[in-house]
Amino acid sequence: MLHALPALLHLASPQLPVGGFSYSQGLEAAIECGWVSDAATAQAWIGEHFDAGMACWELPTLALMHRAALASDVAALQRMNEDFIASRDTAELRAETQQMGWSLIALLAGWPRAHMVLQALAPAFGGLNGPRPMQPVSFPCAFALAGAALATPTDGLLSAYAFAWVENQVAAAIKAVPLGQAAGQGILLGAHERIASAVAHALQMQAHERHTTTPQVSILSARHETQYSRLFRS
Which of 26, 53, 72, 123 is 20 to 30 A from 81, alpha carbon to alpha carbon? Predict the structure, then answer.
């Protein structure tokens, strides 16, 4: 695990150039509607969004994708990638995962240790020889490929992914509510146990047990597409 720690910190870093900072996943629209207005409501919103989507859909999907990538199971990886993209039920959320996924794939193409993994799994994306994959690549799929290329453990990869998601939500809340830095750190600290529990549960879930129920996020994401004043792209 120790040798994988720098790789996991790298993948969880907000400096990873995939554009995650430009998205709020409906949080900005929730702020506009008055549903999120302070640290308490921001913490509640982030926690509920995490439990209803991240914990029971994204994390178990990422775990399955990572195992498929490690096994070079192209068919399974492609199937789960398509399932995840289909689950993004608004234009903004779909564009977000595809843009971030492609950005990470493009970054991995320059990493020596990632080259063999990308080539072995190229059929899942319709080929990687052109300027970009023909097949859309979701962000968790690209993240799973990154984890396979860097030989990270699955539990660590899920923890890094989950923490990066929460951190990005907190950063969006700090900018848009706005919140102070101390309040943001309090939300992050409070998320530690939630993340650990969700990762442990996700590792045990089978493909047919995954589910997501985030109607409020979908509605707010659709509203955000025509919101007059916006800081974020979702």
Answer: 26
